[in-house]
Amino acid sequence: MIQRIASGVKGLDDLLQGGIPSQTLLLVTGPPGSGKSTLSTEIAGNILKRGGGVVYAITSDTPNGVRNKLRIRGYEPPEPESLKIVDCFSWRYGKPGENGIRNLTDLNGLSLRIKEGLAALKDKKEVLLVIDSLSDFLMYSEKNSVYKALQIISGEVKRKQGRFGLVVLEEGMHTSDVLNTVSYIMDGVIQMKMEGTKRLLRITKMVETNHPLNWIEYEIKGGVEIICVREFFK
Q: How far apart are the first and last CA of the chain?
């Protein structure tokens, strides 16, 4: 029987038959401002609150920025060592930060840092990997090299029960061929979008899960909350 890991996001675990399947890598895609990073941060915080571990590879903020973002949302890790940040941002200042990569073409460095972070959290029952965002690597690196790195990272996630990953991708920045290839590598795909003042989400793919394909409304009230889940299972 497949192990599922609760995201802690109201409504999402109901849609996924109890949680995100273990040993999976999921794509979270949508236009800017649709809530992708908020969703990833909330799931990361919930894992930390339960005593799990998080490896956070981020291209748009410093390690201290990531910690502050989690702290503001009330997700102070009970153990500082539970949060491993892969610094994919500080290279912009001309000097990679501690546990960082040289630049956004350093895919070997990214894979190695993620592997090291996951290994350091090997005693945790639940471990989440977040990559936010893959779009930056696709802008700087050769696409086939990015796909290869993703497959290597996916293998690391699948190496141990209790692990799963979220990979953020900006919609509208990439061709359909790129989106299709990245989706193919992934075990699941969550799409997010805005329609007027409404925020909508749908699960287009999820391994070992019977889920609705409809667009479902959600709100961000300090965190992500999916609305009216029950109606999709009538």
A: 25
